[in-house]
Amino acid sequence: MRVPVVALCCLLILPPALPSHSELTFQLADNGLQCFFEEIQKDVSFHIVYQVITGGHYDVDCYIEDPTGKVLYKQAKKHYDVHVQQAEATGVHKFCFSNEFSSFTHKRVHFNLHVGNEPPLLAVMGERITALTQMESTCVSIHEAMNSIIGSQSSQRLQEASDRLHSDDLNHHVIYWSVGEALVLFVVSLGQVVLLKSFFTEKRALPGAVTT
């Protein structure tokens, strides 16, 4: 019964306020632009990770603007990127993804936005000068392991989604190619049958034909 007791104690000492976290996967149409908005306080750090899962050359344009319209970040035709920055002004920040350079291929994009620094696991960790107790050390280890697991699960989900979409696309191409080959073989076989039949067809003279 030791593990449930430790887990319960960890839940009781966790701080109530946690940083904001958003995660989303969306479709970005060809020649499309899609923006997302998040209110961030001045001097609060934010962390964004995005990745193109499928579509075209797996690239997308991305830029971030603060409430004053200042461009904080801008990259063109990126498959994957990570950006960390402190907000320079309080207000609504804009996170935009653009596929305007592509005229016929839509993209599927996944992005993860984390706003704010994670507070100490224990409220007194920043003030105390003594070593952590065994219970507190166990809670910190569990917390760090869970954060690591969350990151690994997100990475695995992205990889699984990318592989699944790629396999579906490959399956469609194989089906279309197989149907095309079957049609070609049918036409060629029919032509060969007609040609061979013409070789063995007896040509009969018409009645009343004059032979010399």
List the helices and strands and how they pair.
Layout: H1 2-13, E1 20-28, E2 33-40, E3 45-54, E4 60-65, E5 71-78, E6 80-86, E7 91-98, E8 107-115, H2 134-199
GO cellular component, one term: Golgi apparatus
Subcellular location: Endoplasmic reticulum membrane; Endoplasmic reticulum-Golgi intermediate compartment membrane; Golgi apparatus, cis-Golgi network membrane; Membrane
InterPro entries: Emp24-like, GOLD_dom, GOLD_dom_sf
Would you give an account of this structure?
Keywords: Membrane, Signal, Transmembrane, Transmembrane helix. It is a single-pass type I membrane protein. It is a single chain. Among the domains are: 17-116, Jelly Rolls (Sandwich), CATH 2.60.120; 160-199. β4 (60-65) and β5 (71-78) form a beta hairpin. The chain has a 4-stranded antiparallel beta sheet, with helices on one face. Strands 2-7-4-5 form a 4-stranded antiparallel beta sheet, with no helix packed on it. With 212 residues, the chain is α+β, with helices and mostly antiparallel strands. The chain is built from 2 helices and 8 strands. The chain has helices at residues 2-13, 134-199, and strands at residues 20-28, 33-40, 45-54, 60-65, 71-78, 80-86, 91-98, 107-115. α1 (2-13) crosses α2. The N and C termini lie far apart (115 Å). Residues 1-17 have low confidence and may be disordered. The longest helix is centred in the last third of the chain and has 66 residues, at 134-199.
